[in-house]
Amino acid sequence: MTLAPPRPRAALALAVALTLAGCAFAPPKLQHPALRDDVPLAGLSAPTRAGWPATDWWRAYDDPQLDELMATALQQSPDLVQAQGRVHTAEQSVKLAAAQAGLSINGTAQLSRQRISEHGLMPPQLLGFTWYNQADLGVQFQYDFDWWGKKRAAIESALDQAHAAEAQRSAAALTIQNAVADTYFGWLADEARLALARQSLAVQQHLLDIAELRVRQGVDLPDTVQEAHSRVIAVQQAQTALESSAQIRKVALAALLGVAPAQLPPLVPRPLPATGGALPADAKLDLIARRPDIAASRWQVEAALKQTDVARAQFFPDISITAMAGLSSTNQGAPALFGGGSSGSLGNVFSAGSRVFGLTPALHLPIFEGGRLKAAYGISRAQLDDTVAQYNATVFHAAREVASQALAAEQLATTRRQQTQQIDADERLVASAQARLRQGVRDAREGLAAQAQLLQQQDQAVSLHAQALTTDLALIKALGGGYRMPADTASATPTSPTSPSKNASRSPRP
Predict the structure, then answer these.
(1) pLDDT tens, 220-272?
(2) C or N: which end of the chain has fewer Cβ atoms within 10 Å?
(3) What CA–CA distances, in Å, run from 218 to 16, 78, 208, 223, 373?
(4) Could you tell me where the beta strands, DSSP code E, fall in 281-354?
(5) Exposure pattern of 44-68 as b/e (b: 16+ CB <10 Å)?
(6) Read out DSSP for 290-343?
(7) For residue 52, what are the contacts with CB-CB under 8 A and spacing of at least 6?
């Protein structure tokens, strides 16, 4: 409904009455939902450390090859490019929402020629002409008063969605970084195990040669040769599996970087780096701002809350004002455009007498919507409840992930210490066997068997080291991988689950 009141006092009285009517039917304003400001990590007994992972956390491993892989991944990864595209889309949505909230100015220019029906309401015989020309030039100004904060809430909702998209991009980058590091360390572990497998194959081949010699001399039964040959085949199979695994990991690295396998930078085997595996002392409180997925979920809550403001503002009247200024001229006869001296000339469109002006204040109030406004508001409330539930689920998932990875890292550290003790014992056995061999007390078989057992334990140690690195990377990812919610956006998020938050001050609701 559009009303153009004839007198200012009557218009003001009508506006006040309709506004009060709208307020009577509008739902009550929502308080900020209660959100957790810590993660449930109480009772977790895990080693602690000072500080959080740095933004470039992979540099702590001191591996130039890994640094180069990370640089390439952050520039060319298809998943990261896709996430960045979502950020750009959200940013453009903010610009669109802001553009719809301000003053709009439109210009028009049209020229039309029309024939009047000879059997119409005004026959041409009375007018004296059958054809006429219409020329219009004008500018229209329109401004909607955002008294109830609907457009402001829409802008802030779009801005919160942009913040969420940026946090999601950070989460995607962290996932890619974690996958690159894990795949690279897996390749290093395969290469280290391949070196041990080659040594083990040489030992088993030597044992096979001794067994064949002893059988030819009639000292041992032929079955000893078959047993030794079986061990050689087993080591060869393990070596083939490791070679295949190393190649697959390089292909996976190329896919993560968005390049062909041939375009991978040259990789040289090197020792696996040391691991950390400890939690920051303030993980329980600070993890909320350190996890990009939690930050994204929190911004989604803020955006959904603003959408409830938009839906609630629909119950209130919209007040706008439209102004128009231009030139308009109607002439009969043939259109001698901008020429002079004929009845069809449109040159007088630019004369002072062709000026037209208009000013139209308007009031739009929903009176009967068939429940549409209530349904739209109910949908926004349901979406808000859903985003709050998703936020809480994200927080609990983060706590479970941190706790499980921290405990796994501690257990692996204990297992690796025990494995080191086992290797030390096997190294002493090898030294004793070699000493007896030099003294002529025993033959070479005892030393070779001890060496084979040592190589097997060393292979197990490399596998445990690789598992520890995987757990270390998973813990870094669980801790947010160096992400930190920017100060200008973090200050806009609620800091207490019981207060309306700082964000409430920037978007007051009627």
Answers:
(1) 788 888 998 999 999 999 999 999 999 999 999 999 888 888 989 899 999 99
(2) N
(3) 116, 66, 15, 12, 99
(4) 318-332
(5) eebeeeeebbeeebbeebebebbee
(6) H-HHHHHHHHHHHHHHHHHHHHHHTTSPEEEEEEEEEEEEEEESS--TT-SSST
(7) 280, 286, 290, 479, 480, 482
Say if residues 132 and 117 touch (Cβ distance below 8 Å): no
Among left, alpha and beta (phi > 0; psi -120 to 50; other), residue 40 is beta
Contact 411, 419 (CB under 8 A): no
Q: Is 73 helix (H, G, I), strand (E, B) or coil?
A: helix
**R_g of the chain, CA atoms, integer Å:** 39
Tokens of 230: 């079986």
* Residue 388 structure tokens: 């709050």
Gap between the Cα atoms of 387 and 293, Å rounded: 13
CA dihedral 394, 397, 401, 407 (to 10 degrees): 140
* Range 281-305 burial, b when 16+ CB lie within 10 A, else e: eebbebbbbbbbbbbbbbbbbbbbb
Q: Residue with structure tokens 């085997």?
A: 269
Residue (of 278, 283, 279) closest to 38 by Cα position: 283
Cβ–Cβ under 8 Å, residues 313 and 150? yes
373-to-31, 311, 367 alpha-carbon distances in Å: 20, 7, 11
Q: How many residues are recorded in the chain?
A: 510
CA distances from 108 to 214, 224, 291, 484 (A): 106, 101, 52, 50
CA 440 to chain centre: 68
CA–CA gap between residue 102 and residue 96 (Å, rounded): 11
DSSP conformation class of 269:
-
| pLDDT interval class at 19 (50, 70, 90) | low
> Is there a contact between 329 and 354 (Cβ–Cβ < 8 Å)?
yes
Per-residue DSSP letters for 271-282?
PPPP----EETT
Q: Are 75 and 257 in contact (CB under 8 A)?
A: no
pLDDT given at position 284: 82
Alpha-carbon gap, residue 188 to 182, rounded angstroms: 10
Strands (E), 73-129: 104-115
Is 429 exposed, middle or buried (CB count within 10 Å of its CB: 0-12, 13-18, 19+)?
middle
Tell the burial category of 359 from Cβ atoms under 10 Å away from its Cβ (0-12, 13-18, 19+): exposed
Packing angle of the helix pair 292-313, 150-216 (nearest 10 deg): 160
Angle at 160 between CA 100 and CA 317, to 5 degrees: 40
DSSP per-residue string spanning 448-480: HHHHHHHHHHHHHHHHHHHHHHHHHHHHHHHTT
304-318: pLDDT as tens digits: 998 888 888 888 887
CA dist., res. 348 & res. 29, Å (int): 57
Query: Distance between CA 351 and CA 242 in Å, rounded?
Result: 90
| Per-residue pLDDT reduced to its tens digit, 93-142 | 666 666 666 677 788 888 888 877 777 777 776 767 778 788 888 888 87
